[in-house]
Amino acid sequence: MSKTLNLSELKMMLTRSGYVALSSNHRIDSSEEYELFSERGRCPPVSLATLTQQTLDIIEAAPDESDAADLSDFADTLKSSLAMVESAIAKLDRG
User: Fold this and answer.
1) What is the Cα–Cα distance from 91 to 70, expressed in whole angstroms?
2) What is the rounded CA–CA span in Å between residue 88 and residue 54?
3) CA dihedral sign of residues 56, 73, 37, 16
4) Of 83, 55, 81, whose CA–CA distance to 70 is shortest?
5) Do the beta carbons of residue 11 and residue 25 sit within 8 Å?
6) Entry pTM
């Protein structure tokens, strides 16, 4: 890599297919970007479902008294996100 990348320069995004991916936000060239953040890169995208399962696995391994409330908030966020996606799909289907 020709340039040191500061973590504060990274951008996190959700892809159209539901994967969380990192980007250098144009701080490095495209070949380095691919080497780092592509599906075959050092830090590939991770599906939202995988991140959710990893979170649930961590909670199951070491439960905490606030977990139920935290998961309830998380579920509300997911439901809201799903409603936005379903609305966008309906708009696209209408043409």
Assistant:
1) 32
2) 28
3) positive
4) 55
5) yes
6) 0.74
Per the listing, tokens 């050092």 go with 42
Per-residue pLDDT tens for 53-62?
Answer: 999 999 999 9
Interval 2-51: pLDDT, tens: 667 888 889 999 998 999 999 998 888 889 989 999 999 999 999 999 99
Amino acid residing at 38: S
* The one-letter amino acid at 63: P
d(C-alpha 47, C-alpha 53), whole Å: 10
Which backbone phi and psi does 47 adopt, to 5 degrees?
-70, 150
The backbone region for 22, taken as left when phi is positive above 0, alpha when psi lies in -120 to 50, beta otherwise, is beta
Q: What is the DSSP letter of 24?
A: -
